[in-house]
């Protein structure tokens, strides 16, 4: 049926949990692309038949023209679905770039969910964000929530050692240790899941 | 204006209120609120952002001085908190704008009115965004489609307009607060003119009024500062 596969593709996107993309469905995606080309071939052969019969494609009102139109519209629909699939995933990727843009690549845990091109897009977009911030000499990806207190209490979730020097001090950030840090210093680690904020 | 004995004190209060409402922090707060509530990108407050950045820098120096001189830590932490809030405001303002750009980059880019609302840095950012997503879409989808269907902006070559571009929903409803008394307004945004005198659906807002309005007809009122968004 026309457009069924593309519909499945978009449905998969919509049924996923928000912000948690599934693995890029290469198989279904390629199938839809194939379908597009099939439509295109059918469309062109219909146009060829009409031209052989000496009919004007734009003005003819026979079965072949409407057949061609259906193929054209199916193709457009498939294109829109494909684009929606990629575009909405790109939105998730941009979101990630905001959150973990300091890294130069996607966190290893979720890397496999994205296609190569998507990975490249993440890198490119992170660069764009970084460029903007360096031009302004202001980090816009910290301070995501309105600050209540300049200092927050955090617990370290992954052994970070003592290599990290924060703006006002350095400390040994061993696994499970708790610290009282400046919010702006801690936020980037919280975003990457290396620390968690403790709320009393 | 009140008369007699009360005059002096109301004047003072008025002065105080205008003073408070025109500090840069308040102005930035207003710009930030408008930007957050408006569905489209608003003109960049270049001068204001510049001043805010300078003031933040000044405040950072003050806080550093306090820390060094071993001043009362409580005072220092109060300054720090104030500083953090100002920084949040500025960052959030810029962030909201960037997120709008990310969402509507093609739409913004092809219209001069919108493009002129961007700062130089934002313009560069938009350009890069379009290039990056264009490359990504090209690689993943478009290059694999038949030739006539490869445009990012159009469904196919026979589309006359760009019909693949996400646009901001301007007909959404916003909560507007009146700042300056407005001329009579019509709900559909049409101008007051002789022909409209017979219509009775106009209304006038006085400062402090809150209204829920459709965004599109009241864009101009927002731009001229007669209303602000909440």
Automatic annotation (TrEMBL), chain A:
GO terms for cellular component: GINS complex. It comes from the Eukaryota. CDD domains: GINS_A_psf1 (cd11710), GINS_B_Psf1 (cd21696). It holds the Pfam family Sld5. Its main location: nucleus. It is found in: Nucleus. One of its GO terms (biological process) is DNA strand elongation involved in mitotic DNA replication. Keywords: DNA replication, Nucleus. InterPro entries: GINS_A (IPR021151), GINS_bundle-like_dom_sf (IPR036224), GINS_Psf1 (IPR005339), PSF1_C (IPR056783). Residues 148-199 form the DNA replication complex GINS protein PSF1 C-terminal domain. This is DNA replication complex GINS protein PSF1-like isoform X1. The gene is LOC111274454.
Automatic annotation (TrEMBL), chain B:
Residues 60-130 form the GINS subunit domain. The keyword Nucleus applies. It is found in: Nucleus. Transmembrane segments: none annotated. One of its GO terms (cellular component) is GINS complex. The keyword Nucleus applies. Its main location: nucleus. Keywords: DNA replication, Nucleus. One of its GO terms (biological process) is DNA-templated DNA replication. It holds the Pfam family Sld5. It comes from the Eukaryota. Residues 168-230 form the DNA replication complex GINS protein SLD5 C-terminal domain. Coiled coil: none annotated. PANTHER family: DNA REPLICATION COMPLEX GINS PROTEIN SLD5, SLD5 PROTEIN. Belongs to the GINS4/SLD5 family. The GINS complex plays an essential role in the initiation of DNA replication. This is DNA replication complex GINS protein SLD5.
